[in-house]
Each structure stands twice: as structure tokens, then as C-alpha cells.
Write a structure and sequence with these properties.
Rossmann fold, disordered N terminus, FMN, binds flavin mononucleotide, globular, single chain, alpha/beta, 221 residues, FMN_Rdtase-like_dom
Amino acid sequence: MQAIQMSAIPITVAVLFHSGFGHTARQAEAVRRGIERVAGASVLYLTSAEAQGRLDDLELADAIIFGAPTYMGSASGPFKTFMDSTSKAYARGAWKDKIAAGFTNSASRSGDKLATLTQFAIFAAQHCMHWVNLGLPAGNNSTHGSEQDLNRLGFWLGAASQSNADQGPDVAPPEADLLTAEHLGERVSIVTQQFVRGRLPAAEGLWSGMSREARHDRVRL
Ligand SMILES: Cc1cc2nc3c(=O)[nH]c(=O)nc-3n(C[C@H](O)[C@H](O)[C@H](O)COP(=O)(O)O)c2cc1C
């Protein structure tokens, strides 16, 4: 797919995820591809373990997309450990007004994935971030639908994917779910650029050539 040319406002979108066995990592890679389709967007790609040592870098991101497998009806334990490690950033309001979104993967069609997406949205709200939803209609919910539809699992809070329990990450999750994740990454990039553009004090030209750090200082509310 062609890169979107309408705006090249430089933004950084972090993809911050955990994956125990590689399935959610496939989804994270798809989110990354979607972000990179938008001109001007760059990606900070971190596992939740890496992110615990990169909190300063995360503060420079314009948006953070959270991802984890659903284990026992909630985000996986390692991802929750990361969430708890952000309490100092929370106390300082370090992520205030960043854009947020989320994705999760599990073995069952539902598998209580909504609980994980809700957990991410509440986590983002505690950090005073702005949550972006999936922005797709439901797929595969009529006689005209199919398993190839985007959003075939019918989630709106974020991107969901489903990986059969007896298949490895080489074949699961299926293509439709990866394309759904790509859509989320692209949507978050576009919304983030709209949001950053709305905070620009002057013409876009003013920002060209300015470092990400300098721009970040200028737009911080
Ligand atoms: C400890 C554990 C708990 C799980 N709990 C759920 C669950 O609540 N719902 C579900 O549908 N699948 C559940 N699964 C299946 C995983 O979500 C599924 O295998 C997923 O693809 C794993 O992603 P990963 O390879 O990124 O770790 C669980 C798996 C494990 C290991």
C-alpha cells in the first residue's frame, strides 16, 4: 500500500508489547507496518521488558500502542509488571496527552480479550492519555461475511486477533487479523498527526528541521 502523502508531520509512535510464544509479536509487527505506511511516522518498537529500561525514550513518543496476549482473562503477567513499573511516570504526568491504543491476541474467538483491551484503556486513562479506537465496522457478522474480513472478531476498543492453540506463530494469527492490526497502526499514526498538527503554534514549515525533542518541548501542554 502507498504511503500517505497528505501530511509528513514527524511523529514517533511506540509499539510496546509482550508475547510469550510469538503470536502477539506477529500482531505487533503488523501494527508496526501500519504505522510506517504514514509519511513522517517513525516507530519505537519495544518489548515490555525492554521498555522498563527505556522510560525516558517513551516520554518522547507522541503515541504508545500497548499489546499483550490475553492470559487468564487479562493482559499477560509480564505486561502487567511493565504497567506497574510506570507508577513514577504516572505520578509525574509524564504521558499526559499522548495518544494511546491497544491490541491483544488469544486462542479463543472471544477468549475474554475485551477485558484486556479495557485494561489497556483504563491504564491509558490513568496516564491521562487519549484513547483511539479501532475505527472499523464489524466483519463476518452476516451471510455475506467471511473469515477474511477485517475485524472479523468484532472488537472496537482495539485490534483483536485469534491464534489457534495448536498452531505456531508461523501460521497464526491469520492474515485478516494481521491486516486489522495494520489498520490500527495506520489509524493511530494519522490521528496522532492530526492531534500534533492541532497543537502547532504556526505554519508547518516552522517545524521542519526541528528535532523531535525540541518539537516535543514546544507542544507539551
Ligand atoms: C497462561 C495462559 C493463559 C491463557 N489464557 C487465555 C485466555 O484467557 N483466553 C484465551 O482465549 N486464550 C488464552 N490463552 C491462550 C493464549 O492467549 C494464546 O495461546 C496466544 O496466542 C498466546 O500469545 P503469545 O504467543 O503472544 O504468548 C492462554 C495461554 C496461556 C499460556
